[in-house]
Amino acid sequence: DAPLAAVAVQCIGDVPAMTDLGYTDNCDAPGVVTGTDVSDNGSCPETITRTWTYTDACGNVSVPVTQTITVLDTQVPVFAAPPAAIAVQCVGDIPAMTDLGWTDNCDGANTVTGTDGVLLDPCGGSFDRTWTYTDACGNTATVTQTITVDDTTPPTGTPPGPISVAGIGALPPCDIADVTGVSDNCTVNPVVACVGDVSDGGNCPEIITRTYSITDDCGNTITVDQIITVGDALFPTASNPLPINVECIGDVPASDS
Q1: Separation between Cα atoms, residue 227 and residue 211, nearest integer Å
Q2: Sign of the four-CA dihedral 58, 59, 62, 68
Q3: Is the pLDDT assigned to residue 233 strictly greater than 60?
Q4: What is d(CA 146, CA 133) in angstroms, rounded to the nearest whole number?
Q5: Which helix (H) or strand (E) holds 197?
Q6: Is 82 exposed, middle or buried (0-12, 13-18, 19+ CB in 10 A)?
Q7: Between vectors from CA 256 to CA 252 and to CA 257, what angle results, nearest 5°?
Q8: Please, are residues 106 and 11 in contact by the beta-carbon 8 Å criterion?
Q9: Which residues pair with 127 in a beta bridge?
């Protein structure tokens, strides 16, 4: 029979099954003979030489008939769909790493763990989570998920309650410890500061607004106010004039107010 044409396949599993090849001989009856495969032990590509020979009853050997089979995987693996891009407020909200499945025409199927890029700004930055698989022939597939971190949530806190004081001299100093319930979605200890006091310019009473600021690590800030009423709780004082004696009613001195 005529030799089979050369073939190229993707995977070793795609190599066609061995076939018998027919022969004729001037003395021996016609028949078939099974070929043999010899690999060059290469990789990507691997070349297999499939050879058929026949030796007749008198030791005459036929001219070998060969077929060349080339095994070369050129198909890239295929990943499952990666997670969709997401945005989170805090670094602590970044989802845990997950394995992602892949399939390959020659290597089969499995999963691979991703790797995270560098987050340059934890208050407002992004990075790619990347999954990569390279098959036995160096064909590489890559998929990514973009994760954005952007803290836009301001902290919270409660100012001191309103107070009244008797005179400006009794005005207490600003104390950040008076602000309670300070918290933030990302920052463990937001910074509390005294901004200052603003008077309404009034008198009896004078209203002073005391302002505090609360700032998280990403610069999100709120202000909270305490109202302080300044009054005058002290009565005025005076001394009685000394007694005097006059001769006539017309000598009574005028009132001195």
Answers
A1: 9
A2: positive
A3: no
A4: 18
A5: strand 191-199
A6: middle
A7: 145
A8: yes
A9: 147
Token code pair at residue 139: 């064909």
Per-residue pLDDT, 248? 83
257 pLDDT band, cuts 50/70/90, is low
Residue 235 has pLDDT above 80, yes or no: no
List the Cα angle 44/48/50 in 5-degree steps.
165
* Contacts for 189 with CB less than 8 Å, ≥ 6 apart: none
CA distance 28 to 57: 7
pLDDT at 40 over 90: yes
Q: CA–CA distance from 219 to each of 35, 124, 176 (Å)?
A: 78, 11, 18
Q: In what order do the strands lie in the sheet with 86-88?
A: 86-88, 140-150, 124-134, 115-116
**In the block, residue with structure tokens 């993707």:** 10
Six token digits for residue 98: 């997950």
Which residues lie closer than 8 Å to 212 by C-beta, 6 or more apart? 157, 159, 174, 176, 179, 192, 193, 194, 195, 223, 224, 225, 226
Q: How confident is the model at residue 3 (pLDDT cuts 50, 70, 90)?
A: low
3-class DSSP assignment, residue 213: strand
Percentage of the chain lying above the pLDDT 70 cut: 95
Q: What is the pLDDT of residue 254?
A: 81
- This prediction has a pTM of 0.76
Q: Between residues 243 and 36, which one has the greater pLDDT?
A: 36
